[in-house]
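tmp note - Fumarylacetoacetase
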Amino acid sequence: MGLGYEAWRETRRSLQQLLSANETTLRDDVSLRSRAFFHQSSAMMHLPSEIGDYTDFYSSRDHATNVGIMFRGKENALMPNWLRLPVGYHGRASSIVVSGTPIRRPSGQMRPDQSKPPVFGQSKQLDIELEMAFFVGGGNRLGEPIPIERAHQHIFGMVLMNDWSARDIQAWEYVPLGPFLGKNFGTTISPWVVPMEALLPFAEPNTVQDPKPLPYLCHDDAFTFNINLFVSVKGEAMKEAATICKSNFKYMYWTMKQQLAHHTVNGCNVRPGDLLASGTISGPDPDSFGSMLELSWKGSKTVDLGGGETRTFLKDGDEVTLTGGQSHYRNHDTTLLSSLQTLL
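out:
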């Protein structure tokens, strides 16, 4: 990631050549193949980078509108700044884990009854957030912004991401500075990073933004990606997982180039391996909502998993699977939710 844009392209071309049917270097050398390849079933996957910093954006208009309606009403669903800039917050890099790592149900302060003082205990509204994220490659010096014209040269590749969220802890703590303990107990990403060059065939025209952003956020080239996304949940008593969400990355309002340009416009320096996430990816239809907060509409209705199983939020022992892909691209992320009692 740190070698920069041209090195990524050269490496990808070299790998494609080595793996092509007509290339003899690996194809005809049994000894070399035995050293170069490993069975995936016998491999242990790790985080693809030492993540120094992590930023989570809030770039789905449908998600931001849904949450705004729940907490502020339809008239004030979007805050005045939302259509002017990519809203985001700095998360905790130390608690980002690779797919398959168990997540503990967090404890914290909550105020379930607004007429009474807050209480302490385990979160009762544990949620998922369907996201994608990109790794920064290259970087910039402190005080030198990355212009949007060159932003693509600093976006290395993408992973699937689950931004685990304790909604009851978050609701009590977030005013006035935003997410804290309701988010930083765990974030899961897939181990495979799909390089941006592999995703370019799925680029589509960007969402028409109204009002038009300020010049430093404007770009005309297509950098919105058609990637089908799915979320399924499997309870301990269930034989098969149930799909609860069918969304698409193309629903994002702010592009990755805009996110990176805004992140650095004040001179903030980003470094190779930094992770920048999309925020929850929700679409316009109820079955495309990327969080259980939206699917259950703040717990007011249940999500049907089949066989008599329903959820408003996650139960101990639930397994959550995020899947993304198109016919030429497949990326898989499995995350486990375990109870605090089980782990201790």
